[in-house]
C-alpha cells in the first residue's frame, strides 16, 4: 500500500510539476510585541489583533517574495508595558530569527528594545510609540508610522489655550517615557500659544488613588487638567475628579484617546469634558479605507478598534511590501528598501519615511467624547 501511495504522489508531482514548482514557499517570521497583560492589556490586544489581520490578509493574497509564495507567521510576545520585560521579549524574538518586528506599543518599551533590534540588524516599526527619542537614537532599523509627541503634545497645548480658553492649566504625568514626554511637549505648546501652566504633579502608570494630587491641584481652581499617561489611569482619575468637584476639562494624548475610556471612567465623564489627540488620521476619500478596516476588524474579532490596530496593520503591510520589492525577507536585503518607503497607501493614509525613520507629514486627529463615544473634531497635519 505504501509503495502504491508513493507512486500516486510521484505521478501527481510529475503530471502537475509546474503547479508544484509554483507553490514553492518561503517562511516569513514577523514578531509583534505589546502589553497583553496588565492595566492596558486591552490596548496591547488591539494592536496584536491588527497584526493578526495583516498576517491573515497577506497569506490570503499569496504574495511572492523572490519567486516563492510567502507564508507569514506571527510570533507574538507580551511586554506588559514594562521596559525590562520589553527588552527580554525583544531578545526572544531575535533568538527566534524573526525577519522583522512590529511594536512595541509604549515608548518606554520601544526605546530600549530598539537597541536589541539594531544590534541584531532586525527592522522594527512601531505603530504607536510617540516619544521623539525613539527614532533619534541613531539606529537604522527603527521606524514608526505615527506622528511624534513634539507634534501631538504641542498641538494639544495650543488647543488648550486657543480653543478651550484655558486660563488655569495644570499638568499630571505618569513618569513613563511616553507620559512625561508628551506632558513636556504640552507645556511647551501652552507657552508657545501665550498661556501658562500653574501646577505640575506626577503619579505612576499603575496608580489608582489620586486624591492627594487632585486635592493639591484643586486649590489652583484649574479649568484644564492635562494628563500624560494611559486610559487605565485616566478613567479612575476622572471618577476622582468628579468626586472632588473638579469640573475642569481633561486633555490628554493618544494614551487616553481610546474607545474604552468611557467604560473606565464608569459614568464620571460628561459630554465635551475630555479632549484628546490620536497620533494619526485620515480625511476625505481616504477615510473610507479606514472605515472599511474598522468594520472588518469588528466582524472578525467582535470588538471595536481601540486606537492603533489600523496602524499595526499598515506597519505589517509596509514591511511585507519592502520584502516583496527587495525579493527577500532577510533583514539585510529588505532594510534599505524599507527605509526608502515613499507613497505607500495604507488604511491610515499615505506612508513615507524620512531619514530618521519617522513618518513624513504625520497627521493628528483631535477628538472629544459625546454620549460615551469618541467624536472627531479635526484632522491636523
From TrEMBL:
Known InterPro entries for this protein?
A: Leu-bd, Peripla_BP_I
Q: Where is the Leucine-binding protein domain?
A: 27-372
One Pfam family, short name: Peripla_BP_6
- Entry keyword set: Signal
Q: Which residues form the signal peptide?
A: 1-22
Q: Which family does it belong to?
A: Belongs to the leucine-binding protein family.
Which protein, by its recorded name, is this? Branched-chain amino acid ABC transporter substrate-binding protein
**Organism ancestry:** Bacteria, Pseudomonadati, Pseudomonadota, Betaproteobacteria, Burkholderiales
Amino acid at each position: 500500500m505504501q509503495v502504491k501511495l508513493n507512486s500516486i504522489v510521484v505521478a501527481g508531482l510529475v503530471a502537475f510539476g509546474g503547479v508544484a514548482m509554483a507553490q514553492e514557499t518561503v517562511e516569513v517570521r514577523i514578531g509583534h510585541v505589546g502589553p497583553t497583560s496588565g492595566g492596558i492589556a486591552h490596548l496591547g490586544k488591539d494592536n496584536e489583533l491588527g497584526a493578526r489581520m495583516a498576517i491573515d490578509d497577506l497569506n490570503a493574497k499569496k504574495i511572492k517574495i523572490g519567486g516563492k509564495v510567502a507564508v507569514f507567521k506571527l510570533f507574538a510576545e507580551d511586554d506588559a508595558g514594562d521596559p525590562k520585560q520589553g527588552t527580554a521579549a525583544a531578545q526572544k524574538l531575535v533568538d527566534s530569527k524573526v525577519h522583522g518586528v512590529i511594536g512595541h506599543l509604549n515608548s518606554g518599551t520601544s526605546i530600549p528594545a530598539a537597541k536589541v533590534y539594531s544590534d541584531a540588524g532586525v527592522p522594527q516599526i512601531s505603530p504607536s510609540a510617540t516619544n521623539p527619542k525613539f527614532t533619534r537614537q541613531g539606529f537604522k532599523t527603527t521606524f514608526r508610522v505615527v506622528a511624534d509627541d513634539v507634534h501631538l503634545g504641542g498641538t494639544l497645548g495650543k488647543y488648550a489655550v486657543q480653543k478651550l480658553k484655558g486660563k488655569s492649566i495644570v499638568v499630571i504625568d505618569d513618569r513613563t517615557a511616553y507620559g512625561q514626554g508628551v506632558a513636556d511637549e504640552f507645556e511647551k505648546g501652552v507657552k508657545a500659544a501665550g498661556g501658562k501652566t500653574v501646577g505640575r504633579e506626577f503619579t505612576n502608570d499603575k496608580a489608582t488613588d489620586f486624591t492627594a494630587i487632585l486635592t493639591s491641584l484643586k486649590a489652583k481652581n484649574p479649568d484644564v487638567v492635562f494628563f500624560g499617561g494611559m486610559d487605565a489611569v485616566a478613567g479612575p482619575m476622572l471618577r476622582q475628579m468628579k468626586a472632588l468637584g473638579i469640573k475642569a476639562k481633561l486633555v490628554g494624548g493618544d494614551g487616553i484617546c481610546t474607545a474604552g475610556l468611557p467604560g473606565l471612567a464608569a459614568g464620571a465623564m460628561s459630554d465635551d469634558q475630555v479632549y484628546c489627540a490620536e497620533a494619526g488620521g485620515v480625511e476625505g476619500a481616504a477615510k473610507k479605507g479606514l472605515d472599511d478596516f474598522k468594520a472588518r476588524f469588528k466582524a472578525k474579532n467582535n470588538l471595536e478598534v481601540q486606537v492603533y490596530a489600523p496602524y499595526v496593520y499598515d506597519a505589517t503591510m509596509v514591511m511585507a511590501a519592502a520584502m516583496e520589492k527587495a525579493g527577500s525577507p532577510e533583514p539585510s536585503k529588505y532594510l534599505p528598501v524599507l527605509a526608502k518607503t515613499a507613497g505607500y497607501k495604507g488604511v491610515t493614509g499615505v506612508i513615507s519615511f524620512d531619514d530618521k525613520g519617522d513618518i513624513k507629514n504625520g497627521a493628528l486627529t483631535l477628538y472629544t467624547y459625546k454620549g460615551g463615544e469618541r467624536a472627531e473634531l479635526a484632522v491636523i497635519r
